[in-house]
Amino acid sequence: MNKADRLQAGQIAGVVNPALIEHARQRRQKLDNRIADRVTAFSGSMQFVYLHAIWFACWIGFGVESYPYGLLTMIVSLEAIFLSTFVMISQNRADDKRQFLANQEWQTVQTEDQQNVELLHLSRQILDLTKAVHDLTLARSAGSAEPIQRAS
Predict the structure, then answer these.
(1) 3-class secondary structure for 60-82?
(2) Of all helices (H) and strands (E), which one includes residue 123?
(3) Which helix (H) or strand (E) holds 16?
(4) Distance (Å, whole) CA 60 – CA 38
(5) Is it the case that residue 45 has pLDDT exceeding 70?
(6) Which of 85, 100, 106, 137 has the most crowded CB, counting CB atoms within 10 A?
(7) What is the number of domains present in the chain?
């Protein structure tokens, strides 16, 4: 798994959330998603900035067209339209990831709540048994065969 995959999968300080690994796996199954992820990763990098700085300098420096650079403006405008679309795709992907994590966390909370209820029930049973043993011990030490009945 390369650095981009680890970041997409939600790896933080060496710990990877299994839900995010599954989400990334499902996302990689579609070609459209893989292309969008690659474009978004590249367009959000400094390499993208450097490439454009060199491109603009060459366009102007080699005199591909004269001022006011109508073709360059049109090309850059079209690129901006496509990049804004990829930004929205990236935001949708991030929202999907957050929703996926929220659903996983909700399931975990529900499971833990159920376990806590079961633990409280078991604790009450242990407390009742402990009281019964204590009462039986007190009754036997007092010489009575009948256990003491507590009011609950």
Answers:
(1) HHCCCCCCCCHHHHHHHHHHHHH
(2) helix 70-141
(3) strand 15-16
(4) 29
(5) yes
(6) 100
(7) 1
